[in-house]
């Protein structure tokens, strides 16, 4: 038996997510998931297979690879000089849990018509050597030299750090950066991409604000919300410290820092868009 269902690209793999299947049929614009990346309509997959987060993630990644492949093929057919290939802009979004950062990223993607790639998708790819290789090779399997030149140019003096996972992570994010026209949420993307290659955003909010968010949005008790926020904060700080030897809260790692405790999500989104466009103008 086959089914067709809207699956949240972030929550589909989270067995404890309270909003796992509570998504609008409007998909991209209608999702209410607080950790939203994108929705994926999966057809002709058994109900049992829907429970397999790996299948969900693999299918989402393959859709993105196919899109990149079509983009590159279109450019080549139009006579594009592959050695001068330049992708679109990149925005990285680092966020404190409960600050509204994921929702702001979704609004940015909608307003700027950019792809949105969440932390869990990148983590999934980086964890899999096979999937990581497929993403890295998506530029063109026959253009190995071109790919390496692009990535070397992208990183400049930035080189993948030791460790298999981090090598996969940096090269996957680097490949995403080459194609561009994308918003990358989390996983230290702002530490991977050089300043000239990305507009780097940090979303913060007071602890009380963030605790209140989880109480109201997910139905947590105050104790549960506080524990979740503190643990997630510590996990993200530890990730950045471990892999990039950096302080996630250090302002020098970002182009703009937004405090959603003192402005609405709409105001935050418009402020980021204005600053992003100004940076693009200065770089032109």
Q: What is the strand content?
A: 5-15%
Order of helices and strands: EEHHEHEHHHHEHEHHEH
CATH level 3 topology:
Rossmann fold
CATH H level: which superfamily? P-loop containing nucleotide triphosphate hydrolases
Radius of gyration: 19 Å
Q: What value does the average pLDDT take?
A: 70
Number of domains: 1
Biggest sheet descriptor: 5 strands, parallel
Q: What's the level 1 CATH class?
A: Alpha Beta
Number of strands: 7
Terminal CA distance: 53 Å
Structural class: alpha/beta
Order of neighbouring strands in the sheet with most strands: 4-5-3-6-7
Discrete helix count: 11
Helix and strand arrangement:
Elements: E1 3-8, E2 39-45, H1 47-50, H2 53-77, E3 90-95, H3 101-112, E4 115-117, H4 119-127, H5 129-136, H6 144-155, H7 164-179, E5 182-185, H8 189-192, E6 199-204, H9 207-218, H10 222-244, E7 256-259, H11 265-283
Parallel strand pairs: 3-5, 3-6, 4-5, 6-7
Antiparallel strand pairs: 1-2
Helix pairs in contact: 3-11, 4-5, 4-7, 5-7, 6-7, 9-10
